[in-house]
Each structure stands twice: as C-alpha cells, then as structure tokens.
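Case 410 in the screening queue. Each case pairs one protein sequence with one candidate compound; here the compound is beta-D-fucopyranose. For every case the pipeline is the same: read the inputs, emit a complex structure as tokens, and attach any notable structural observations.

Predict complex for case 410.
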Amino acid sequence: MIEFPKDFLWGAATSAYQVEGENSNSDWWEWEKRGRGKEPSGQACRHYELYKEDFDLAKSLNHNTHRLSVEWSRIEPQEGVFSDKELAHYQQVLTALRERNLKPLVTLHHFTNPVWFSRIGGWENKRSIDYFLRYTKRVVEALGNQVEYWMTINEPLVYAYHAYILGVWPPEKKSVFAARRVSRNLARSHIASYRLIHRFYKDKGYPAPKVSIAKNMQAFVACQDTLRNRLAVGLRDRGFNFDFLNCLARNRSLDYIGVNYYSRNLVEALNWGVRSLCVDTCQKNHRPLKKNSLGWDIYPEGLYQLLVKLKRYNLPIIVSENGICTEDDELRWEYISSHLLAIHRAMQEGSQVKGYLYWSLLDNYEWDKGFTPRFGLVEVDYNSFTRRTRESARKFAQVCKSARLDNGIH
Ligand code: FCB
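Case 410 output:
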C-alpha cells in the first residue's frame, strides 16, 4: 500500500471548447464550418448547460479539485466587447464547484481563440500580448475572488506545433518562423498575465494566487542507443520539455508547475539533419508497449523521470493532465494506477507533487480527432447526452477518498 499526503489535490480536467458545445465565436468553430477536422464539435457534451450534473458526478467520485477553462470567444465575442452574461455564467460555474467542495483550477487559454483575434493574425501578432492581457484582466476581475489556482495557457508548444508547424489545427500554417513568433508571444503573454494577476490580488488584499501554465511534457527515449539518437533526445528534451519553462522561471512567473503527461516519444533520427534530429520517431514498433486507442505508448516510467528532473526548479508540481483514450476500461485503470505509482516514487525522491488531475472527467471532443477517442472517467452518449460512470472512475474514487493505492505490497 502506498500513501499520498492528506491534502493532495485529486480530480479531473476538462477544457471549455471540448465539453461545452456551440462555441460559435471561436476560430476552431469557424474552421470546422469549413469542413476541416474529423467532425464538428456541435453540442460537444452540452456541459455548458449540464455542468451542475457533471460536478455532482465529480463530487460523487470523491474529487476535491476540478480543472476547467473559460472560453475567450464567449467572454469577448468581438474585439473589446466583453459579455457580462458569459462572465456571470462562469461565476455560476465556480459557485457550483464551491458548493461541492471542488477547488477550481482555471485555465485562461486552452487552444481556441475568438474569431476576431485570429483575423488580426492571432498569436503571430505582437499585439496578442495586449489583447490577452486585457482579457485576463476582465476574467480576473470577475472570477478572482473565487480562484486560487490559475493556468494562463495550456500547452503553448503543443499549440504552436500543431497550428503553425504541422498545420493540422487552425490557422493551418507550416512555418517554423511563425511557430517561433507564436511561442514567443505566448511566453510573453503568460509573463504579463502572471504579473497582472498577482498585482490584482495584492491590490484587493486577497491571499496570493498560484499561477502557472500547463506544460505538456514527453519522455524522449532513444530507440537504439546511438550517438545520433542520444543527441536527438537531448535536443528534444531541452527544446520541447525545458526551454519554455526555463524562460518562465527566469522571469519569476511560475508559482508551481502544471505538468500534462501522456506518453513517450521513441526517438530514431534517420540522419544528421536538423529536421531528423528534431522529429523522427521509430516507425518499426521496436520495443512495443501497450498503447491507447490513438497509438500512443503507455510509459509511466517517463512521468517518474520527468518529475525527478523537475526538482531543479524547486517548485510545487501539479499533474494537470494525465489520461488514456481506450475502449478497454481495465486498461484505463492500469494506466491511472501505474502513473500514480510513478508519481509516488518521484515524491519519495523529493519531487514536490501536490495533485493529480485525470484527463478527462468526461469523454469529449478530441480536437482534430473528433469524438472517437474516449478519455473520460465518465462515458458520454452523444445522442442522448446521458453520462455513465466507468468502473475505472470508481477505482480512482477509492484512491481520492483514502489517499491510498494498493501496489501489491502489504
Ligand atoms: C492534451 C490537451 C487536451 C486533450 C489531451 C488528450 O494535449 O491539453 O485538451 O486534448 O491532450
């Protein structure tokens, strides 16, 4: 049996666009309307209306924390025009969480932008920093008295990579230069927003907030132990996992680190070219592992290793996403429990992990992959919008309640 601290944060995460439905002022919605992506998000999970029922479920599963995002395109549907109605909606959402003793972690930006913002160049535009800051200010004024934990931006590099290098998300660009501009503006926006939130809380006399980003981290593993692969692993680990965090840490803009971890990247660089060193992966399924339904390797060891490496920042850590899409619910529990063991092992070695949020509370709209991947603790029927709690969710609920997990050793 292993034990987690009594005040550990337990829960699950969602993002507005993936669960709410009908986010019709968003760039992603416009993109779907042009027939892009696998299928349109439509009503998604109808969480915009059903949030109380969904939070009842989270409560019944013994969660004490819930990560959600607010949708910029609802709050500021036109440039400079803020919707009091939508801000009031999110106030009610936070009240509903408080009534159920669920501590909120609020993300300000989770991949989607207002249409007006994307029309003026989105995150490539230098002024994106000012726009994001103005939006942050309005949200913090409206919700600040109900929130201790903020995440400004979800997975900035994942966003920049998919939208500006791979070109599979709006605005479908394929330019390393654009991606660099975008990630720079995202970093600057975070730093400015971090300072604004802190200043606001100070002026109001509220207890200091805890502000971070959600950083996607991957375990880069060399398939064959060659010099070239070792070099590639080093480059990717630094470039993808640490450079962005280092920049934010240098600017003293992290109160904790949010880690989103899913899988490993099995590195097999085919030549010495930069492209190859940065992106090639082994296609031959050497060293096969169990996989999720999107084919991502299940590799809890990687989470352990990353958490140990993160000790260098000497900051608290929250695992702000970790989860599996699968049709095999037993595999889901195996995934959760093995990753919890990995976290616990890292904690034994001094990693300051304070919480674990499973991705996701509900099955939801998985971006360009549509509704097929099922990540939820709770299954959603997309015809009737009924919810059904999975067995893995009940097992996880036992851990949330007792803060204990059976590791087979008694
Ligand atoms: C993460 C995203 C989240 C979800 C999961 C599966 O990269 O933050 O929205 O799509 O992957």
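Case 410 observations:
- The chain has a mean pLDDT of 98.
- Residues 176-204 form the longest helix (29 residues).
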